[in-house]
């Protein structure tokens, strides 16, 4: 049962180079399906899934690009009011990893600086071995430098997909609750109020809510900082 009946709404974005699997991650997470053939994304689209995180009910709108990333003309509407973002690269394509920095800069330009971010290396399939060119260690090192939680996923094999989405939502929820706490305290102007650095919300890490039938969560390839 969700706390207080309140529903928290979050807009979560998926960005990264074309063909890294952004649409596939969204479809895997929301519809539990995977489309092996390339279907170009047409029109800005979002899908909704409700998550329960530490008893808070979170309605997550997951936005997928309309394929504009190919032309680097993602509209500001896409970024507006986003609470979280998955920055995705393809572990079998080094060029997509080298563009992660550029996508991070893009987010910093258009989004609030408090936006929750996670780094996702997709196509880390069960049989990826020799095709994998972006090594886990290198991506992990980068994610530490950038202070980003990091997940290696496979939309095809349903590996760590739930974990990545839950983590970005958990971080967004934490930020929402903290800013609310600060606002409440400012309003009350109480003596023992918490200041912006002192306010802190603790949320459990465990993923709750609807369990997907085939979700395989491999913690070994999830590397949170
Ligand atoms: N092997 C493998 N292929 C994937 C995976 N995720 C997506 N793909 C394939 O990669 C291609 C591009 O995926 P898509 O989701 O359209 O990428 P987008 O352009 O970033 O939205 C499609 O052919 C997908 O079937 C994955 O985890 N493993
Ligand atoms: Mg797409």
UniProtKB/TrEMBL annotation:
Sorted UniProt keywords: GTP-binding, Membrane, Nucleotide-binding
GO cellular component, as recorded: endomembrane system
Cell compartments where the protein resides: Endomembrane system
Biased composition (Polar residues): 197-207
Annotated Pfam families: Ras (PF00071)
Keyword Oxidoreductase: no
CDD domains: Rab (cd00154)
Annotated PROSITE patterns: RAB, RAS, RHO
Region of interest called Disordered, as start-end residue ranges on this chain: 184-225
Any one GO MF annotation of this record: GTP binding
InterPro entries: P-loop_NTPase, Rab, Small_GTP-bd, Small_GTPase
SUPFAM superfamilies reported in the protein's UniProt record: P-loop containing nucleoside triphosphate hydrolases
Membrane-spanning parts: none
Name of the protein this chain belongs to: Uncharacterized protein
